[in-house]
Specification:
Pfam families: MATH_2. With 348 residues, the protein is mostly beta strands. It is built from 3 helices and 25 strands. The relative contact order is 0.15.
């Protein structure tokens, strides 16, 4: 962006500096550092500490992560490629699962390494570098280095430095970082902003859904023939309560048909925005033969869409046939088979 003959720009990078002040929040003293490699300890995590109202920890290792590939919000480590040239250090949130869904924390942080020869610290931090350059006066360049806040959330729980320090530089005793096989790291974290991303919808699909079966036996069917709707006892499937609803003369009094639906038993208890994907079969059992009458469907149930099925499930003529066992000795048996394949929830 140019204003007159003044050019401005923004760059991002890592600031490497020296500090006499110790880290404000945590210090880690590692004795016999070489024993970590000797015993194949590829990663060491510090204890937890609190800063800005959140819990954090940092960790060191000598492998460089493959950026762009994440597993559970953390970098995926390429264990078969031993770089062995740099020491990597990262800051991580200790309890990201405790964050409300959609919650984000912006924090600036610095990682420290003690120079034991000079009693000061090597300090690394992410920065936002703002450059102002006067084109007519080439020597007039102004730099503003501002600590860069990183965004921590449930999908990205850690940030840090792949190449915190060259291992040769680290191991050279004249630099003071590793003395008598001992070293001291530190960290400080400053939360600069917190925010919610608004409403967040999470769809959780079930890989291997379990089918739940329930049989509803209606005795004395002729006694319910003139009722609007008959409802089964509550059945449980996939952490939700369900019921079968039978309309002897069709829902909406369409006549000459039986309506058969599956319904949520208590939809008012569902959190707003919740949807449940159920695959279900409702089956009228032939009590004389195996010529069962059934319907199969998949449907997203919710507080506003509480039941689904077949308005014209079966005609009265077919249901009351004497040579069919759908109604036998005034008994009708209906079997429900329900598998929950997914659930969507909304928070925020």
């Amino acid at each position: 962006m140019a204003i007159g003959d003044v050019t401005q720009g923004d760059q991002y990078g890592v600031l490497r500096s020296t500090s006499e002040a110790p880290p404000a929040h945590y210090i880690l003293n590692i004795q016999q550092f070489s024993s970590l490699t000797k015993h194949n300890v590829e990663r060491y995590e510090s204890g937890q500490f609190e800063a800005g109202g959140y819990k954090w920890y940092f960790f060191c290792q000598t492998y460089i992560p493959v950026r762009g590939t994440e597993v559970g919000g953390s970098p995926k480590w390429q264990q078969d490629k031993k770089v062995g040239e740099f020491l990597s250090v990262y800051l991580a949130m200790a309890e990201p699962s405790s964050l409300p869904p959609g919650w984000e924390v912006y924090a600036t942080f610095r990682i420290f390494l003690l120079d034991q020869n000079n009693d000061n610290y090597l300090k690394l931090e992410d920065i936002h570098l703002h450059v102002t350059y006067n084109q007519t006066r080439c020597s007039n360049m102004h730099l503003d280095a501002i600590s860069r806040g990183r965004r921590f959330h449930q999908m990205r729980t850690e940030w840090g430095f792949d190449r915190f320090i060259d291992l040769k530089e680290f191991g050279d005793s004249s630099n003071g970082y590793l003395q008598g096989d001992d070293c001291v790291f530190g960290a400080e974290v400053f939360v600069c902003k917190e925010r919610s991303k608004g409403k967040t919808e999470c769809l959780s699909m079930v890989k291997d859904a379990v089918a739940y079966k329930h049989t509803w036996k209606i005795s004395s069917y002729t006694k319910i023939m003139n009722t609007e709707c008959e409802t089964s006892n509550i059945l449980n499937a996939g952490d939700h309560k369900w019921k079968i609803k039978l309309y002897p003369n069709g829902k909406g009094s369409i006549g000459n048909y039986i309506t058969l639906n599956l319904a949520l038993a208590d939809p008012t208890n569902l959190p707003p925005g919740t949807k449940i994907l159920a695959e279900f079969t409702l089956r009228m059992l032939d009590q004389l033969d195996t010529r069962h009458y059934f319907g199969k469907a998949s449907y997203w149930f919710s507080a506003s869409k509480t039941e689904w099925g077949w308005k014209r499930f079966i005609t009265h003529g077919t249901f009351f046939q004497n040579n069919r066992g759908l109604l036998f000795k005034d008994v009708c048996s209906i079997e429900a088979e329900i598998a929950i394949h997914g659930e969507a929830t909304v928070v925020g």
